[in-house]
Design a protein that fits this description.
The protein has 877 residues and is of the alpha/beta class. The protein is 31% helix and 23% strand. It is built from 27 helices and 38 strands. The protein has a five-stranded mixed β-sheet with strand order 3-4-5-2-12. Helix 22 crosses helix 23.
Amino acid sequence: MTVTDPDRGLRPAPGSAALHRYEAYRVTGGLDLDALRKAWRATAGDGAPLEPAAVGRAADRQFGDGELCARWAALPFTGGDTAARLHIARRSRGEHLLLLVAPDAEAWERPSGALPITLSDAYRAVVTGQRPPGSTRRGASPAHRGEEPSKPAATTAPGHLVLPADRSRPHLPPHAGSTVAFDWGPEPGRRTARLAEAEGVTPAAVLLAGFRALVRHYAGLDDGSLSVTFRELLHATSDPGSRPHRIEQADAVFVHRDPAHAALRLPGARVRSLPVHNGTAAADLTLVLQGTEPRTTGFLEYRTALFEAASARRLLEQLATLLAAATADPGTAIGELPLEEVRHRELALRASDGRTAEAAGTDAVHVSVRRHAGQDGAAVSFGGAGTGYGELTAHAARIAEALTAAGVSPGSPVAVRMEPGPRRIAVLLGVLEAGAHLAWFAPGVGGERHKSMLRDLRPACMVLDGGPQEDPLAGWYADEPGARLLDASRAVGTGADASGGTAATTGAPPDPSGLAYLAFTSGSTGRPKGIAQSHAALAQFAGWMGSRFAMGPGARVAQWVSPEHDPALAEVFATLVAGGTLCPVPERVRVNPDKLVPWLVKEGITHLQTVPSFARDLLGVINDSGADDRPHALSHLLLMGEALPGELVEGLRTALPRTRLINLYGPTETIAATWHEITGPTAGPVPIGHPLPGRQVVVVDEHDRVCPAGVTGELVVRSPYVTPGYLTVAGGPHHDALFRPVAGFVPDGDRWYRTGDLARLRFDGALEFRGRSDFQIKLFGNRVELTEIEAALARDPSVLECAVLPHANGQGLVTRLGVYVVPRGDPERDAREDVQAWRAHLRRQFGPLALPAVFTRLTSRLPRNAAGKVDRSRLAR
């Protein structure tokens, strides 16, 4: 998806072939070339060239009619006052190929009629012995004189709406284009004609109103524009005439080309029009209507840098569906006009539902891990030593016994706060063996956030690797009323004591609906929010992840994600359930890319899960490393937690050609929701893909209607693995609205979760992440997506990373943006020059939409939370 920009910077420059207006003809029979030359001079002026040199030239015979005309139509205009050209070639005896071309639509239209009509009149006068009318236009067009041609009509000031493009906009304005023709048959034309007559408008105005309505659908406008009826929109739409009409707030254009204006009539010869396109596009999308009677025909021109041909065809199908409904009942609100035929809606809904897919992992994760107790090979590898599955499960049993002895009862929460290593993994298993549920805390400095989490959690016990005096948070917690702490090193033992003794427990498996863990996220109020998850959910996802990504014997999986963020649990248990080797990353290495890359090589890591922003840092180190110092063993790189840019993917594919790249998406409330494996070149936003087994993922609008392909809405997940709820906190907010079922779906016992994330279903069936609904703001009446600004600025080579925050006035209106930038390269260079360059870069990207930005150049990396995401609350301080 791309933000369209109708600014002049994205429009073709004057004289560009994308602005050319042209028509091609095959002429059979008695064509009088001398009369044609005289008629052309009378039409276009003595200086306007006729290209007779092309007649019979051998070089032109290698091209078919369409390709030859396309080449002619793409030739730049040269010469001081040329307003048009006529190309002609003899294809065989008695057959000629003609192409009329003008530098722009203004030069094509003349006071005496369009260029073909004027030439037809002049030719008729010459062959009948009359004096042809003099040239009515001898000067060059404004575009050819280097001036900006008059802008296509628009009903409102240009802004920025989102069209469902397949790729991100290239850095330079893309003007290569192609077309998809449409012929909707006679019935749409009859319906259009009836509505036009009833409403006192032209059929072309009906088509233009339909195109405007389609673009509004894609934009997902929330300003009330979708609530107006089609009839109201039609009466607010002026007749387009024959001039291009720009759709408001989008780089989309409507053109009505009346066939009568393109007809060339040469007495004594048979003339047939030929469809020709010169391979350029003047806008992201241009809908060209050629006729409504007896059939509705035309073509959609699109920029090939942004759209696939298949997407252009689907777009036309949606327009046809919308127009069919609008002409049948013009009193319908635009937002209620369908874009999809029933077959498309049914196919999309079936594809959205992965709950019938075979679910991996039905037993609780600690029960599945027990089965590997007799397996050879290490379960955990750390510090050069390996811990086998038998030893790991024995340690887990000792922890379970110690927790029970300490008074931890089944169903109680247990906080785990330990340094990386095999003992920490044993404790995670031991907590589950004891029937309790986990709350995994990152080691290190505590802080108020962790204290708040512990107050809300009220754990039955905190497990440490040592005494509380060695941990500030544990020391604070030890003084809390009723606090209980367990030293895991004492419970497991050391040396010989730790290697033998208690066998793995074989107690009854837990209730699948019982809690397995609590994960904390930042929460919209700033207070950490505890999200509960069941044994069934953890087992299902860990089983699927371990199986799908080959994490079994022979795999060496880095445990990189910080504790308390649920992907850490996913990578731990996916590895252990599958029977692979888990390799915890030392804390001094984990967030340092210069140290992590050599560690990946030394440990022979095959699987790494991380966030895209950190993967970008790793890529920089890998690219600076020699061939022998790259992580060639890395077979899987799983990226999650942030939008994944196409440029990063291409860099990773080049640096790690044998590594599978997977994009994972999902809120903590569902563990995960979708996945997408990248198997080829990526030139735009990487899709988040298709639903995981056990989940249905739909995109809905504000009225709970499922959005058609191409339309942005909120992403909602239905699954038996949606969290059973949040940790209850006295005086905390109510979250019932987040779990409200989507209207229109038959209840089946599964829960719904409204993510607050924006997405759209692409025309190829994959889902695409479109940012957060709370990252969208209104700025001077224009809707702005903050992540779009961040992505645009990040494309500047001088930017290492950036974040954008809105600043509102007392009335809640956003009046400026805070842009925080970490520069790449020399930090000592002039900050003012950097800011000027960044501001100019955004101006090129966003054109007339003035971004009132206050830039802050940072000397250190952006602050991040435990999930690895940018901590915007710390930036705002």
